[in-house]
Amino acid sequence: MTTIEVAESLRQLQNNDFETFLGVSEVLLKYINNIILNPAEVKYRSIRLANKVFVSKILPVAGGIECLFAAGFEENDEYLTLPEGSRLDALFFLQRELARQRLMTLSNQVARVTTSQTSEHAFHRKLRSSSDHVHHYEDPLLQQKARDVIPYEDLNRKAATRLNSIEQEETDDRPLDQRDLLLLELMKWFKQRFFKWMDAPRCDVCSSATRSSGMVEPTAEERRWEAGNVEGYTCTQCNKRVRFPRYNHPGKLLETRSGRCGEWANCFTLCCRAVGFEARHVLDWTDHVWTEVYSTSQQRWFHCDPCENICDRPLLYEHGWQKKLSYVIAFSHEEVVDVTWRYTANPQEVISRRAECREEWLMGSIDRLNKEKRQRLSASRVETLDERVPRELAEFLSLKKLREGESQGRQSGSLGWRLTRGETTGAQAQGSSAAEIYTFEPTTEEQNTKSFHVKYCCASDTYVRVSSRDKVTEHWESCVHQHQNILRKEEFDWNMVYLARGRIPPSVYNLAVRLLEDTTEV
Fold first, then answer.
1. DSSP for residue 377
2. Are 260 and 268 contacting, i.e. CB atoms less than 8 angstroms apart?
3. DSSP 3-state assignment of 508?
């Protein structure tokens, strides 16, 4: 089957009314995405002709069954089947075009965007600027400068140790590999040892606190390092003027090692590229920035927020921080991708807020940027990127389920700063625990020796189970039986780390962390 036949079937499908098109396209995309995400599962390649959903949503709709035939499905007795080994080009084309048409249709009905050329020009300048900026990360000299400060051998050794521990555990999940674990170690090092959060600079004369005095004009030297904005502060003790340039050049950030989320993500993305990870710089139009890193073992992109030291928790912002997302776009030297849909469980609500440009215009703008970038890539690399697209799109379109760690409010920055941004709320702020109840189960060795010994180190955020051959478990939540209103706080200014009470409503006074007390008499 050819893409021409798919395009003709799509035209028939689009001639249906709004509700009918959305209903049939949703079912078709479910069929397609199941095949893409589960290529080894034969059952997803068959559709029973008597299936109620198929009979009610596909069969009576003009273009419905035609789309399936055009994508390569064949009628086989009581089923429509996609033969094993058949080319999937038409299927991928159908997936992409259905997703695009659904987005534009929903946008026209839900958002009813009325934009001016001025707003789209401003949007395009932002796209172009971010697309150009990421080429800094490919500079061999900058990458070497980053490698010079990254303790790669130590991080890789820790990753190998963690991998050995994981391999001894039974799990149904696709196993992480050492590179995945190296990424986690790199992010942990970056957060705890390398970069520092900057709410307001200290006075460089008397080290006292400062207060904001507004924006000041960048100097030529500050502009050289792409500091378009410079914040001015005044010392509360000696009245000295203090400057905080918001540097945007990752090479300079390797020296200053401080800033807010923009500086953190900028420098961390360079560090990821320096050690060989495929990385994207992700810009959230509601004022946040983070990184995405491609996992070869998982065959997908990991969300990585170095400010929070959190990996693969994409619903954190919408659910935990209560952000009203609109546009989330990822940039690398190879591609630009609208990844908004990875970060929301409520796509229609997000679509209703996407009012800065027309969806068709945005798709066309991103396509043109990618065409430019691909001219610099080899044919084999373009083929690799193309092969990843259907799986990532299937991930965007799949139903999202909340995972542990996605309910917490923002941890980085001062409480006052977080309150002004409205990012402190979440399930934990309401006094609930997102962690599952954990129970220690004595091993045979512990039962035989009648010994049970666990130590927790807050500085490294690790448990050591001494009575079980010093088994190491990371993260304080992982071995807690029950907790309420607790978070692990790191104070880099004072070199302190501790477990502390989280922000809770006035009616909630109970502060408790309870490890399992009954050790079944070991």
1. S
2. no
3. coil
pLDDT tens readout for residues 290-338: 999 999 999 999 999 999 999 999 999 999 999 999 999 999 999 999 9
The total of other beta-carbon atoms located within 10 Å of residue 186's CB is: 27
Q: Give me the pLDDT at residue 407, please.
A: 83
In the structure encoding, which two tokens stand for residue 84, read together?
A: 């094993």
> Largest Cα–Cα distance in the chain?
87
% of residues, the chain, pLDDT over 90: 69
**Residue 457 scores a pLDDT above 70:** yes
For residue 303, the SS3 value is: strand
Q: What are phi and psi of 128, to 5 degrees?
A: -65, -45
pTM over 0.85: no
Contact 278, 255 (CB under 8 A): no
25 neighbors 102 (Cβ within 8 angstroms): yes
> Using H for helix, E for strand and C for coil, what is the string for 167-231?
HCCCCCCCCCCHHHHHHHHHHHHHHHHHCEECCCCCCCCCCCCEEEEEEECCCHHHHHCCCCCEE
pLDDT at 118 over 70: yes
The pLDDT of 347-351, averaged and rounded, is: 94
Residue 492, pLDDT score: 56
- 8-state DSSP, 375: T
Element (H, E) at 38: none
Structure confidence at residue 409 (pLDDT): 79
C-alpha angle 246-250-252 in degrees, rounded to nearest 5:
70
Mean pLDDT of the chain: 88
Among the listed residues 370, 368, 388, 357, the one whose alpha carbon sits nearest the alpha carbon of residue 330: 370
The answer to whether 279 and 289 are in contact (CB under 8 A) is: no
Active site positions, annotated: 261, 288, 305
Q: Cα separation of 504 and 298, whole Å?
A: 37
Q: What percent of the chain has a predicted confidence (pLDDT) above 70? A: 87
What is the token pair recorded at 379?
Answer: 């044919």
Q: What does the pLDDT read at residue 439?
A: 82
Cα–chain center distance at 20: 33
Q: Cα–Cα–Cα angle for 465, 449, 515, nearest 5°? A: 40
> pLDDT confidence of 250, banded at 50, 70, 90?
very high
Annotate 56-107 with three-state secondary structure: HHHCCCCCHHHHHHHCCCEEECCEEECCCCCCCHHHHHHHHHHHHHHHHHHH
* Gap between the Cα atoms of 255 and 278, Å rounded: 23
What does the DSSP 8-state code read for residue 321? S
DSSP code for 355 = -
What is the C-alpha to C-alpha distance for residues 362 and 328, in angstroms, rounded to an integer? 12
Instruction: Please give the Cα distance from 284 to 355 (Å, whole number).
Output: 15
Contact 456, 473 (CB under 8 A): no
Can you tell me the distance from the alpha carbon of 187 to that of 354, in angstroms, rounded to the nearest whole number? 31
Integer CA distances (angstroms), 279 to 9, 45, 366, 462, in order: 37, 33, 18, 28
For 358, list phi and psi in degrees, rounded to 5: -75, 140
